[in-house]
Design goal:
Elements lengths: L10 H4 L3 H12 L4 H4 L1 H4 L3 H13 L7 E6 L9 H9 L4 E4 L7 H15 L3 E5 L1 H13 L3 E4 L5 H6 L3 E4 L10 E4 L1 H11 L24 E6 L8 H5 L4 E5 L7 H16 L1
Helix pairs in contact: 2-5, 6-12, 7-8
């Protein structure tokens, strides 16, 4: 029996699509392996090129690599432990975007929206403050999201920490120092007031549940989290809640064990 070694056609995945599977079967029959399916090599063989073209035309979902946008917590960066674990878990399977988010919430939301418009991620993954942002953006752009220990009252969190601080993981711009002041607290407070509406500005006050399938925003809550306790508030708006035996910021092992399987389900 001929075994298909093609990384491009994805015969197993193609079984979900009968039309695509027909072409995958033909490829297996004529032993058009992965090196043949590249357009550069396939051009040397008209027969191979014809099948390669058909596969790309009728099974584009098998050619496109998935994209994941990770949104880190307030004290973190795009190089924090969960971000690195996510990149490792999906190496070769998906493109993982881990930007450094601006300090101020309105700037962070603008950046996230710009990335979503440009990169078209398939799923949002946020932790803590990043989950707060993901919950706001997800219904607007129509992208499913996993909210890890979402902190829906960042103003309360910051009010107790006014002063100078440092990020706990390296930032791309090299700036590790930042300041929490009353103005920053107020900015988060204003955004919180409308965080469950379809527009964070509050100009349109329809609940996000009326414009987006609420079952595609999932919450994951650490049973040992001592900072954020917002599962009841989450369940007022969404339906899928999960627990894991960890604290507010997951370790790499916890992320691999509990976050990754849920992300994989949201990607399907």
């Amino acid at each position: 029996m001929i075994k298909c070694t093609c990384d491009t056609c994805g015969c197993f995945s193609a079984k979900k699509n009968k039309f695509s599977f027909v072409f995958c079967s033909l490829i297996r029959t004529f032993e058009l392996r992965s090196k043949v399916l590249s357009f550069e090599n396939a051009k040397k063989n008209k027969f191979s090129f014809a099948f390669c073209s058909l596969i790309r035309t009728f099974a584009p979902d098998m050619q496109k690599k998935k994209k994941i946008l990770f949104l880190h917590g307030f004290y973190a960066s795009g190089q924090c432990v969960p971000a690195l674990a996510l990149m490792e878990a999906f190496k070769g399977r998906a493109t993982v975007l881990t930007p450094d988010l601006p300090l101020h919430p309105a700037e962070a939301i603008r950046l996230i929206r710009d990335i979503c418009d440009k990169e078209k991620p398939d799923v949002l993954v946020g932790n803590s403050c990043g989950a707060f942002y993901a919950q706001i953006i997800s219904p607007i752009v129509g992208i499913p999201a996993l909210l890890g220990n979402p902190h829906f009252k960042m103003s309360d969190f910051l009010r107790e920490r006014i002063g100078s601080h440092q990020y706990k993981s390296p930032r791309a711009d090299g700036r590790q120092d930042f300041t929490i002041d009353e103005q920053l607290v107020k900015e988060f407070e204003e955004m919180e007031a409308h965080q469950f509406m379809d527009k964070p500005s509050g100009l349109d006050r329809r609940d996000c549940r009326n414009i987006y399938n609420k079952v595609r925003v999932w919450g994951l809550f650490g049973e040992e989290d001592t900072l954020a306790h917002f599962e009841p508030l989450f369940l007022e708006h969404y339906t899928h809640s999960f627990h894991f035996p960890g604290g507010h910021t997951p370790t790499a092992e916890q992320f691999m064990t509990w976050y990754v399987p849920l992300i994989e389900k949201l990607l399907k």
